[in-house]
Amino acid sequence: MPLEQYLVDNHAGWRLAMSRRRPVGDAPLAARPVLIVPGYGMNSYIFGFHPRGPSMIDCLSARGLEVWTVDLRGQGRSIRARGNNRYGLADLAIEDIGTAIAHVLANTKTGATSLDIVGCSLGTALAFAHVASVPTAPVHALVSMAGLVTWRGAHPVVRFAFGSPRLVGLMRIRNTRALARVALPLLTKIAPSLLSVYLNGRSTDLTQASKLVQAVEDPHPIINREIAEWIKRGDLVVRGVNVSKRLPELKHPFLCVVANDDGIVLPATSRHTYDVIGSDKKRLLIVGDPEQPIAHADLFLFTGAQERVFAPVADFLLEV
User: Fold this and answer.
1) What is the mean pLDDT of residues 93-105?
2) pLDDT in tens, 2-28
3) Contact in structure between 95 and 12 (CB atoms under 8 Å)
4) Three-state SS for 8?
5) What's the CA gap between 277 and 29, in Å, rounded?
6) Given a cut of 70, is residue 133 above it in pLDDT?
């Protein structure tokens, strides 16, 4: 079944690109729709692509889930219709995710009045920032895929890259996708260890570089600075709300998916949300082993993701 595509006004100068994949096959329609939120420097393309089998969207919709994706400001097909290009984490978390939630619930075929959110990498932080800042948000369950709320340590490469909030906030990097198109095959051949903090060639088929890089987006200077400040502080703070401190108060059913060899969000940082959230229904899924190490983006792309990640995510959402 093809994706249904939408452009949705966020009332802040942007039209956010959203898509829906309706359930296929004989599986009964799930009770609630699911919204997938991408992370930083990426877009929703990755959810509909897998180099060796059905994608995440394919797998979830085959289980009866109505699957929605959103590209936030600066991602994918989203369009800046007016105004400037200045925005930060709070704008993405509160206005953009709020817009996406409202659109899903106004158009879902499930008849539900709440939805589930799968946050990927930074998308997890944005989802938690939304529910912590908007207590009445109609969000039922939350899934974190290689995501975080509180920094409990960072890889040396990440600490170096975001070492100076002021400096990183002044840097504007363009044409990242074109750079990745050249760099990915090169690193795969001559320096796989450098690439392995994000993608591990032992676990993921990297031969389709031209397709993989379609998920890549340019970083944003303001968000770069905010991430650097967040790493130094540890806690996620959005518009005066300390999201990290609110975690014990949150009761949403929660699935935490951790990549065992993640060099972007270290496993201890990723699982910290699971350790402190106040939910009575929570589950931890650690993916990867010495024979098949799973890095940050491998969770969506590695050989066997369908059985080891996508199926458990669907099981959890259907169960809760």
Assistant:
1) 98
2) 799 999 999 999 999 999 999 977 788
3) yes
4) strand
5) 29
6) yes
Helix H, strand E, coil C: the string for 194-261 is HHCCCCCCCCCCCCCHHHHHHHECCCCHHHHHHHHHHHHHCCCEECCEEHHHHHHHCCCCEEEEEECC
d(CA 198, CA 83): 34
| Separation of alpha carbons 276 and 33, rounded Å | 26
Cα dihedral: 226, 230, 232, 233 (round 10): 130
**Domain locations in the chain?**
4-319
* pTM of the model as a whole: 0.97
Cross-strand partners of 280: none
Spatial distance between the Cα atoms of 299 and 312, rounded to a whole number of angstroms: 12
SS3 label, residue 107: helix
Q: Which of 49, 195, 42 is nearest to 126 (CA)?
A: 42
Q: What does DSSP assign to residue 48?
A: G
Q: What is the pLDDT of residue 1?
A: 66
Contact between 98 and 92 under an 8 Å Cβ cutoff? The reply is no
The CATH number for 4-319, chosen from 3.40.50.2300, 3.40.50.1820, 3.30.70.100, 3.30.470.20, is 3.40.50.1820
